[in-house]
Amino acid sequence: MPQFIAITNPDDPRVAAYRDIRERDLVGRQGLFVAEGETVLRAFVRDAPQRVMSLLIDPKRRDKLDDVFAGLPDETPVYLVEQAVLDAVAGFHLHRGVLAIGAKPLPVSADALLASVQGRAVVMVLCGIANHDNIGGLFRNAAAFGVVAVILDSDCCDPLYRKAIRVSVGASLSVPTALLERDQDIAGLLERHGFEALALSPSATQILAQLKPPARSAVLLGAEGPGLSDALMARARTVGIPMAGGFDSLNVATTSGIVLHHLRFAGS
Questions:
Q1: How far apart are CA 255 and CA 138, in angstroms?
Q2: Burial class (CB in 10 A: 0-12, 13-18, 19+), 70
Q3: CA separation (Å) from 171 to 45, 139, 256, 259?
Q4: Which backbone phi and psi does 126 adopt, to 5 degrees?
Q5: For the whole prediction, is pTM greater than 0.90?
Q6: Cβ distance 66 to 2 under 8 Å?
Q7: Which residue among 69, 164, 182, 226 has its CA within the 20 to 30 Å range from the CA of 75?
Q8: Which pLDDT tens digits describe the chain residue by residue (268 residues)?
Q9: Measured between alpha carbons, how far is 4 from 20 in angstroms, rounded to an integer?
Q10: How far apart are CA 227 and CA 267, in angstroms?
Q11: Which domains are present in the chain?
């Protein structure tokens, strides 16, 4: 079982990693991250308990989390902090009353991650997604529809940013992820590992509903507005989602949900 440690002073050095969360969100945590809320904590402990460094919780929530504590490695510190002290540590009112510090996984190259994927599979490649809500929604959909890997280009924001983790409901902690090198040849990488690149475009000639899912497909998604580069689009199969009333675009996370659902269930 973990160690339960009562903290009464917000300046206690044992909870320094939790101090002034919003300000430290902006500068990074050198290989660590903050997970917030009970739902996210449950997903974290279920999928990667060895990466949980410590917990900070309101004692009123302790009884609800007995099953979570049972999944933690022995001697993991669980700091019990009354709400007023917790708010002073965090720097704002933390109504969820549950925080965790986690260790980021060791980085893996996109080439190595794709090489590990065997058989039929769907991967997702994200280009220039700089909004944490969108990143969180994309990872949530990836987990829901069985995406085996997410590849991020160097212009994407961090999926282990606190808000992205929360929006993903913890999925960004568990879906295998790799970061592309700047200017890496995405199309060539996918081709080398046997993935057919599917790029979403309002001008596509292939309608999604008529697409027979490839055995190994890579869904390419770009930022709302700029989208994917012309060079990348030219080397992918473009696919469109028909819309009513002259609309030609959807939120990128919404788009991913529609496409991934089709790839998972079409013909089943």
A1: 9
A2: exposed
A3: 12, 6, 15, 18
A4: -110, 130
A5: yes
A6: no
A7: 164
A8: 799 999 999 999 999 999 988 877 665 667 899 999 999 999 999 999 999 999 999 999 999 999 999 999 999 999 999 999 999 998 888 888 899 999 999 999 999 999 999 999 999 999 999 999 999 999 999 999 999 999 999 999 999 999 999 999 999 999 999 999 998 999 999 999 999 999 988 788 789 999 999 999 999 999 877 789 999 999 999 999 988 877 777 899 999 999 999 999 986 6
A9: 22
A10: 29
A11: 3-103 (3.30.1330.30), 110-265 (3.40.1280.10)
Angle at CA of residue 138, ends 260 and 65, nearest 5°? 110
Alpha carbons within 13 angstroms on the beta-carbon side of residue 186 total 33
Quickly tell me which residue has 């609800």 as its tokens.
Answer: 64
Phi-psi region of 170 (alpha: psi -120 to 50; beta: other; left: phi over 0): left
